[in-house]
């Protein structure tokens, strides 16, 4: 089974506008599909910083002296680039979330398709597993999570069922959780979608995915050349919203900082107005691409207003 099939590969690399002499960062290396495409256009003196918080991703590293591997959460981007004495970057790519490898692993707890420990940590040295989260969060916190990240109906009912269940027996396996979800929502044709939402919700929380993204976005401007690009592939509306808001306003909240004259002060301009999606053919071939939303920000000088509508 392939580690991961990259989504929107050609388009995302085209949007990076690779300079053969430049330096780039792939902050979500995974199976290395995007990285290999960048390397194919990079000259011998180029650099590619490859981050991943999951050590297993680095089994895919090509033997290539232009690569600098970084086993870390990209939330620590600035610290690492300073430590490595990296030059200003020409571009960064982020392909968010988990890889197919995570979902296909029958031991790591990301998928309800296998009975496995309820783990879900991308970084296996992380402190909190999904099982620990289900054991410790209050009912109200669980309901809020399932409501906001999973957009689940009856989130309160699910949270209540979890709290009742854990009084009797700790929730330690994906099979136990899947059975509980089935008891709450019934066995209809909607069950796989609900299970996917429940598992996705827990995974996002276990790995603090939105917090990491927010922290990273704030660190980017200092390390990217004027004219450099940040290409982001998001798979969840909340992460896409953070990215869109940040490129538009300089803040992931979407509330713009303004100068004395009322102009928006933001380090990036969002290239093109809408979001780009995978074409029908790719969506059929690679189901993961169906929820992909691609956005590009370009590092601009001091002031930025609205959105650049150039032909890309
Ligand atoms: C969708 S996959 C990337 C696939 C890759 N573009 C390819 O072509 O194979 C996302 C990868 O990013 C990693 N990842 C997710 N969040 C991360 C974070 N905050 N810091 C570092 N790596 C992260 C995951 O471990 C996973 O390997």
Describe this protein's structure.
Helix content is 38%, strand content 16%. The protein has 312 residues and is α/β, with parallel strands linked by helices. The chain has 2 domains: 9-98 and 209-308, Vaccinia Virus protein VP39 (Rossmann fold); 124-206, Putative methyltransferase TM0872, insert domain (DNA polymerase, domain 1). It has an 8-stranded mixed β-sheet with strand order 3-2-1-4-5-7-6-8, sandwiched between helices. The radius of gyration is 20 Å and the shape is globular. It starts with 8 loop residues before the first helix and ends with a strand.
What key phrases describe this protein's structure?
Rossmann fold, 8 strands, DNA polymerase, domain 1, 312 residues, 2 domains, binds S-adenosylmethionine
**Judging from the principal axes of the Cα atoms, what is the shape?**
globular
Bound ions, cofactors and other small molecules, one mention each: S-adenosylmethionine
Low-confidence stretches: 303-307
Radius of gyration: 20 Å
Q: Please tell me the CATH architecture of the largest domain by its name.
A: 3-Layer(aba) Sandwich
The count of β-strands is 8
Number of helices: 12
Helix content: 25-40%
What's the N-to-C terminus distance?
A: 35 Å
Give the spatial strand order of the biggest sheet: 3-2-1-4-5-7-6-8
